[in-house]
């Protein structure tokens, strides 16, 4: 489908902060010791070395700052997950400064940081995980970019907004069995399935058909090569109905429905979903599953 | 003159919108494909309105149409036609197959054997049919809409990449939007609607429009952009193979038609971007490490990597 | 927002480990000459072990083994340095620490400790050796340490060795001018507490007594004694007498300083022009300083003795620098007290009978005229004496043997004999030791005096004229005074016998000599302006800044600092600029729009960008719309003429002015 990328970051990179690290303070201590050494021995070459290192520290401020300046979140996309898991976000980090940016660390509070280099690749994609608690849209906080490169004496950091969201499905819970006669009106359809064992009819064999299904007995009678067709007759379309358990609370019901939707999808069965305000007719396939899960995730939430 | 012709084609599109509800984009892409003189592949589930689209296109452009439902036991002759010995005249008489039409709907093309597939694809490529040593020309506007069902894999023969390249565009229709579907349900049977569609254009007009499309100006900056896009599919990360020169030509041709359809005298990058996914989507493949990336995702990646305004 | 910093990857890259090794070796290498052998062995062993660990053949040593090594090394240090908390012991301790730490660097923190200690060791190297070459070498060593530091912080998967080196040099380069500014301006205050310097160095140069053979022994060495920098022309070669000691007591064989009364310096009557110059004296482990004959006053922290030589308050254990003014033409002590007269005519009551007899014969001939007597002595020397570096040994009656038997000698023989004969004639006389001549460096305008320039001459007191310089060597070998000792003695076997490989022996003319002079000048400039900068700073700052005020100091620090940092920031932070003016305008415009929160994405044409902006800010979109249209016209429409360019340019200018307002 043609659509313009939605998650464009409108924000240019924010304010950059910079402060010495613990290693930086250690370096200051080293400078003080060197200065004492120089003063006491009246040695101009140790003075020179001390000043060189002090000047290097000043230069390092600029380098650490410039290592972060110009880096921005080009775009972000969120991948769906189940409540309680970590939602994966694909963040694309890029710069158009023409410089190398090394060891940029991305993190959210509470998430495991990831460190990347913008050297050979620019922009570069990283996957950052954000723990989730509730179903619905998960909108991440601003991502923190920080770096101590090149000398580790200073740490510069900034925050950039993430223009993306991830869909959080309800956590699947296996708790109930599915009501088998959950209000069905339609006719059972005939579905050709390889795994079924009800013999249906014979068909002329065509290249490409599975040789396992060749009806050898028919062939032996000299009636040509035929393949056996199997079919399973499915009596009922399965309906996942929100109103099946009136006594349970909403979130619990959604979790049960989620579990069953996943299970039925795995078994490649045909199922529909009935929510108080929406109905998804029975179908199968990835697309259907996705639609159903999304409906479950967003049920009762203000659609933004 | 060109303007009025474009207007007429736009009217035809609006007519089609009456039948194919809520799919304005896909309808225009299909028309663009027709204007570019290429063939269209629709990948979708059954019942999404592929047949309706084909019939509606045929009647709006005043084209003769026929439909082949492909099955696994179909032979090339079932499509191309057979020579039958005619006793009274004492000679072989050629009975043309369904391929001898102006708009051919090849339904579920992946259901038939590669041999039959290639018979059709060769006819599409060359615009003629060679049977029993005799070559017969196909009608002049010859437009194939092939469909294949992406989900059912059992007992099918997916089109190989080399054959996919023969389709100018690949689109999918997708489910209608809720309101479009409601309208559809309220209105009832679509067949009756289709029969009432008047012909807005004639095959001659279509040929004229096809020629006009290729007159649309493409500046050197635009050609650079097309070239950079194509280049990226060959060199960029995430692609296992890129767009062929034929694909590049197809992209430019479609962009021209799209621009013409929107009454522009020159192609702008937006035209290229609009037709990029349908034209290029089936000609590229993600590299191993990007497995699972759909072509739509790859194309949006491609768009974001190639700066439109980069000079040179 | 406080957050727990988790570092999943804290390991060092393999190239970082190699850089640690290189950095450690680089800073320890200069100390190899004096470090105890077992420390070197330990270091080499640790490096080898680390390489084995690096290549995966060994694993990291067990903690008990490391503890054992630490204890053993500590015991070794105690034994080697005899519990002496000297500088050497400290550096050895740091070196051992470095070596042992090498065994356990695994994470970033270990590497940082190692590198910081390495930087400290690098600084201590200068306490032992300060030559220009060493400074250049240490620059390279520090570069290696910084490269190692960069390699610690880079991606642990990076393997290229050169990458951290390149970045380190790019960072050190702008640090150099900043370092110079700090070096110039940082006020040098004296030591905060007294420190023990190395006291083991030998005393060199002249001693406070002179026996036959003492001075000629000095010609075996080309060691630097001092350098004298002249602002104007240097004195003529015949006037280059550098006064160090006046010896007035004679015991029949050797001359000593003798007892000096506590009286002030002898009265000096300057005749003619004076010369002002600066002496840079090498450490001699003696107290006396050098001055051109004869100094007007003593420099600070030194005293003028009665016979106008200079004595420092402390031993000269470091290279020192002082300014002096001397008068080449003078009258010294026209009045002599009875006690002084007695002291300067004192001789042992016995010994050297033949010499005394010869003097009394000459006295009779000259009827007591001092000048005639001196002429006779000099004529005697001139007639049949040989000036040689390797005179024969002299016995008990050294003057007799020299005057009548051997008849060959070096300056101390002639001076000693002359002073003896004058005193025998009851004329006050004394021996002066010091240096004579010097090598003139034309490029930097200074004289270099080496130990082989050591000399001894006589001062004779003449009624009405005071003390007069009398150099008997000039009578025997006038070329000794006119030429440098180096040129004069080059053929003699004893000359520079202690420095057989000295460049001085090989290079005496041509461009090689020029090169040597330049190298020497460079070294001297290095010593004067860098190593002894604390002596110069005050004057220099006064000259350059026109008075030292805190305000001026701050300004002098900030202005160059801001210039360098501004240049660096511009280099680092500028965006690549397109060459085409249209592109440049467009980029500026888009940057301006970006500051308002709208960043164009790569796949957006201007039209689509404007459409997106319009959804949020219609006013801004309205400003940009003409630009987008003109851009499309220029780049994609069929006829692209010059007017289209102008239209786009105009549209962009207009948009820019509207954006500003």
UniProtKB/TrEMBL annotation, chain A:
Domain of life of the organism encoding this protein: Bacteria
Name this polypeptide is given: Uncharacterized protein
This protein's UniProt keywords: Membrane, Transmembrane, Transmembrane helix
Membrane-spanning residues: 16-39, 45-65
TrEMBL record, chain B:
One annotated GO molecular function: ATP binding
InterPro entries cross-referenced by the UniProt entry: ATPase_AAA-3, CbbQ/NirQ/NorQ/GpvN, ChlI/MoxR_AAA_lid, P-loop_NTPase
Chain ranges of the ChlI/MoxR AAA lid domain: 233-300
Pfam families: AAA_3, AAA_lid_2
Zinc listed as a keyword: no
ATPase AAA-3 domain span: 39-169
Highest taxon above the source species: Bacteria
Alphabetically ordered keywords of this record: ATP-binding, Nucleotide-binding
Similarity comment text for this entry: Belongs to the MoxR family.
PANTHER family: METHANOL DEHYDROGENASE REGULATOR, MOXR FAMILY PROTEIN
Protein name: MoxR-like ATPase
Native species: Nitrincola lacisaponensis
Automatic annotation (TrEMBL), chain C:
TM region positions: 65-81, 111-128, 134-153, 165-186
GO-annotated biological processes: proteolysis
InterPro entries cross-referenced by the UniProt entry: Bact_TGase-like, Papain-like_cys_pep_sf, TgpA-like_C, TgpA_N, Transglutaminase-like
SMART domains hit by this protein: TGc
Alphabetized UniProt keyword annotations: Hydrolase, Membrane, Protease, Transmembrane, Transmembrane helix
Domain Transglutaminase-like stretches: 403-474
GO molecular function: peptidase activity
This protein's record includes keyword Protease: yes
The keyword Transcription is annotated on this UniProt entry: no
Stated name of the protein: Transglutaminase-like enzyme, putative cysteine protease
């Amino acid at each position: 489908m043609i659509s313009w990328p939605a998650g464009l970051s409108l924000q240019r990179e924010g304010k950059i902060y910079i402060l010495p690290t613990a290693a930086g303070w250690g370096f200051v201590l080293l400078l003080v010791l060197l200065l004492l050494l120089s003063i006491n021995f009246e040695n101009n070459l140790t003075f020179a070395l001390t000043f060189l290192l002090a000047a290097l520290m000043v230069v390092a401020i600029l380098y650490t700052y410039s290592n972060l300046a110009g880096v921005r979140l080009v775009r972000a996309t969120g991948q769906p997950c189940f409540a309680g898991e970590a939602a994966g976000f694909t963040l694309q980090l890029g710069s158009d400064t023409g410089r190398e940016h090394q060891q940029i660390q991305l993190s959210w509070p509470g998430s495991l940081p990831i460190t990347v280099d913008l050297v050979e690749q620019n922009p570069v994609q990283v996957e950052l995980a954000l723990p989730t608690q509730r179903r619905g849209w998960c909108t991440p906080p601003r991502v923190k970019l920080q770096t101590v490169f090149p000398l580790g004496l200073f740490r510069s950091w900034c925050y950039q907004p993430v223009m993306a969201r991830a869909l959080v499905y309800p956590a699947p819970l296996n708790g109930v069995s599915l009501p088998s006669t959950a209000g069905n009106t339609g006719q059972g359809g005939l579905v050709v399935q390889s795994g079924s064992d009800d013999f249906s009819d014979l068909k002329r064999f065509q290249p490409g058909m599975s040789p396992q299904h060749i009806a050898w007995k028919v062939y032996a009678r000299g009636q040509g090569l035929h393949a056996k067709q199997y079919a399973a007759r499915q009596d009922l379309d399965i309906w996942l109905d929100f109103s099946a358990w009136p006594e349970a609370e909403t979130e619990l019901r959604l979790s049960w429905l989620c579990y069953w939707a996943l299970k039925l999808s795995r078994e490649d069965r045909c199922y529909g979903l009935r929510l108080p305000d929406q109905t998804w007719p029975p179908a199968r396939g990835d697309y259907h599953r996705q639609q159903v899960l999304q409906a479950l995730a967003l049920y009762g939430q203000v659609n933004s | 003159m060109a303007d009025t012709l474009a207007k007429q084609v736009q009217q035809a599109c609006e007519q089609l919108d009456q039948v194919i509800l809520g799919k304005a984009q896909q309808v225009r892409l299909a028309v663009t494909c027709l204007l570019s003189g290429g063939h269209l592949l629709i990948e979708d589930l059954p019942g999404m309105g592929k047949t309706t689209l084909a019939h509606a296109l045929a009647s709006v452009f005043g084209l003769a149409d026929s439909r082949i439902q492909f099955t696994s036991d179909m032979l090339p002759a079932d499509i191309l036609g057979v020579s039958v010995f005619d006793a009274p005249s004492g000679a072989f008489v050629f009975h043309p197959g369904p391929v001898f039409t102006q708009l051919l709907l090849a339904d579920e093309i992946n259901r038939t054997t590669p041999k039959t597939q290639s018979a059709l694809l060769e006819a599409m490529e060359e615009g003629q049919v060679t049977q029993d040593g005799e070559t017969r020309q196909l009608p002049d506007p010859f437009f194939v809409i092939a469909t294949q069902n992406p989900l059912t894999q059992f007992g099918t023969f997916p089109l190989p990449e080399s054959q996919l390249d023969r389709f100018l565009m690949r689109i999918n229709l997708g489910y209608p939007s809720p309101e479009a579907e409601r309208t559809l349900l309220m209105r009832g049977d679509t067949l009756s609607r289709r029969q009432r569609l008047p012909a807005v254009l004639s095959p001659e007009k279509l040929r004229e429009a096809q020629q006009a499309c290729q007159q649309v100006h493409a500046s050197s900056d635009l050609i650079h952009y097309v070239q950079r896009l194509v280049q990226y599919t060959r060199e960029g990360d995430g692609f296992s193979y890129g767009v062929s020169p034929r694909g590049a030509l197809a992209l430019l041709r479609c962009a021209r038609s799209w621009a013409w359809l929107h009454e522009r005298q020159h192609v702008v990058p937006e035209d290229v971007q609009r037709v990029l996914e349908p034209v290029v989507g089936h000609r590229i493949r993600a590299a191993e490490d990007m497995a699972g990336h759909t072509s739509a995702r790859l194309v949006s990646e491609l768009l974001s990597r190639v700066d439109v305004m980069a000079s040179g | 927002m406080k957050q727990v910093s988790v570092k999943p990857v804290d390991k060092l890259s393999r190239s970082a480990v190699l850089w640690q090794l290189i950095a450690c070796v680089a800073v320890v290498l200069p100390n190899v000459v004096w470090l105890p052998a077992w420390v070197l062995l330990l270091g080499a062993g640790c490096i080898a072990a680390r390489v084995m660990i690096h290549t995966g053949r060994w694993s990291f040593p067990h903690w008990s083994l490391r503890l054992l090594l630490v204890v053993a090394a500590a015991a070794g240090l105690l034994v080697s340095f005899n519990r002496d908390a000297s500088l050497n012991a400290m550096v050895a301790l740091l070196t051992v620490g470095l070596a042992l730490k090498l065994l356990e660097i695994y994470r970033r923190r270990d590497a940082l400790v190692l590198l910081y200690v390495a930087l400290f060791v690098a600084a201590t190297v200068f306490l032992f050796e300060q030559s220009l070459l060493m400074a250049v070498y240490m620059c390279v060593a520090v570069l290696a340490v910084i490269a190692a530091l960069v390699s610690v912080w880079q991606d642990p998967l990076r393997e290229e060795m050169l990458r951290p080196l390149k970045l380190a040099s790019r960072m050190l380069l702008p640090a150099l001018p900043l370092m110079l500014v700090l070096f110039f301006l940082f006020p040098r205050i004296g030591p905060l507490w007294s420190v023990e310097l190395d006291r083991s160095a030998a005393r060199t140069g002249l001693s406070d007594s002179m026996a036959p053979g003492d001075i000629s022994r000095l010609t075996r060495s080309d060691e630097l004694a001092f350098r004298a920098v002249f602002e104007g022309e240097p004195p003529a070669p015949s006037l280059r007498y550098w006064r160090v000691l006046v010896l007035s007591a004679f015991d029949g064989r050797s001359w000593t300083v003798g007892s000096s009364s506590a009286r002030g310096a002898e009265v000096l009557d300057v005749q003619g022009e004076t010369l002002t110059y600066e002496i840079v004296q090498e450490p001699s482990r003696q107290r006396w300083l050098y001055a051109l004959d004869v100094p007007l006053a003593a420099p600070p922290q030194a005293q003028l003795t009665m016979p106008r030589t200079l004595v420092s308050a402390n031993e000269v254990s470091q290279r020192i620098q002082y300014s002096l003014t001397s008068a080449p033409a003078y009258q010294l002590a026209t009045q002599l007290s009875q006690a002084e007269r007695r002291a300067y005519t004192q001789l042992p009551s016995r010994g050297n009978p033949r010499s005394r007899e010869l003097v009394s014969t000459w006295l009779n001939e000259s009827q007591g005229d001092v000048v005639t007597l001196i002429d006779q002595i000099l004529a005697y020397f001139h007639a049949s004496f040989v000036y040689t570096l390797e005179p024969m040994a002299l016995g008990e009656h050294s003057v007799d043997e020299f005057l009548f038997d051997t008849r060959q000698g070096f300056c101390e023989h002639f001076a000693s004999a002359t002073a003896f004969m004058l005193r025998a004639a009851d004329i006050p006389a004394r021996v002066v030791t010091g240096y004579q001549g010097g090598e003139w460096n034309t490029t930097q305008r200074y004289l270099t005096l080496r130990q082989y320039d050591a000399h001894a001459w006589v001062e004779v007191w003449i009624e009405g004229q005071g003390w007069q310089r009398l150099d008997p060597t000039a009578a025997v070998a006038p070329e000794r005074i006119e030429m440098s000792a180096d040129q004069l003695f080059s053929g003699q076997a004893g000359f520079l016998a202690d420095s057989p490989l000295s460049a001085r022996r090989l290079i005496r003319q041509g461009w090689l000599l020029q090169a040597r002079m330049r190298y020497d000048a460079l070294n001297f400039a290095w010593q004067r302006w860098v190593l002894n900068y604390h002596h110069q700073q005050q004057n220099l700052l006064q000259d350059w800044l026109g008075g030292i005020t805190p305000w001026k100091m701050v300004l002098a620090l900030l202005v160059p600092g801001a210039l360098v940092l501004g240049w660096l920031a511009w280099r680092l932070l500028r965006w690549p600029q397109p060459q085409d003016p249209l592109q440049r305008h467009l980029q500026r415009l888009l940057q301006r729009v970006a500051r308002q929160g709208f960043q164009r994405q790569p796949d957006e044409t201007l039209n689509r960008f404007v459409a997106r902006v319009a959804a949020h800010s219609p006013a801004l979109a309205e400003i940009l719309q003409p630009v987008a249209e003109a851009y499309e016209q220029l780049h994609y429409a069929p006829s692209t003429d010059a007017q289209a360019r102008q239209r786009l340019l105009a549209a962009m200018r207009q948009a820019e002015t509207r954006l500003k307002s």
